[in-house]
Amino acid sequence: MQTQGMSGNFDERWQSQGQAIDRVENRRGVGLAQRESRAVRRAMGLGWFSVALGMAEIVAPSVVAAIAGARVRPQTLTTLRLLGLRELASGLGILSKTRPDVWLWARVAGDAMDLALLGKTLASPRSEHARTLTSIASVLGVTALDIRSAIECSRDESGMTDPEGVHVLSSITVNRPREEVYRYWRDLEHLPTFMAHLKSVTQQPNGRFKWVAHGPLGISIEWEAEIVADQANENLAWRSCEGADVPNQGSVRFLDAPGGRGTEVRVELRYDPPAGALGAAVAKLFGAEPGQEIAGDLRRFKQVIETGEVLHSDASIHKGPHPARPSPKSPQQQSIGSPRRGSVEEGRQVAR
Prior knowledge:
Helix content is 55%, strand content 16%.
């Protein structure tokens, strides 16, 4: 009876510790999501500003010239219309969400051009210097916003669009160098080692990857995906191919943890479950709370990358009341023996 109580207490402590870790990691993920959401809103605001300014320069160039303190001449009006076309293209590019970082940097280049033209206008004795100086100050303020937004969007090189379905962000710190952590993730076939909802990920002859996930009632859900961004030791992103029943995207970023404590791994997953029975099956993949499910996957990843295996509590192996005892080795464990510390490949075999 005493050993049963000890086993039950161990399981309760294990679960409570896991829930505490979930809460911490989810709060970090929520904070990251909020920061990225503000960056997206700021970029979209600049996109609409570009569209409005571009239309004004095309439709009413004389008004814009007067506001800037420039003389209204045919050459000035032609220049402003061309600048309007540039602004319109940049704004529509940002709003399309197709590589917004490129279009934001185009806005920065355009700002530099505008400042050069305003400087030339200010040097003219026939310009209204007060209005020109006000315009220069305004352009400098917008330039600062453009640079900030361009830098923020450039940090996310996955090119992922704003999701309409489920969006999950989570992170964890592992005591391993970035090179090792990146190398393990780069082989996507490792993902089922610690992602509970995946059965397998295999590379196809065409360079794509076939993903097979667990569904309810033993149903398997399959799709093909391709790598869309790959910067060694920095980030990795993948996306489902056209025609997938479950459109989804994922990315992982690798950052040096503060204080030399290893690597901070930030994972972002987006998927858009369809309606109906298939949608219900997809929802089942991540459980009732997607954030907690992914946090659990990352905890298992931490165990694999640091110790070579996924650790299980005694109560998670033996159902119901039982005396505390070591669990029997699986055939895979018997064949390879105890994994060496830090042996990722052997840990992958044990976890499977």
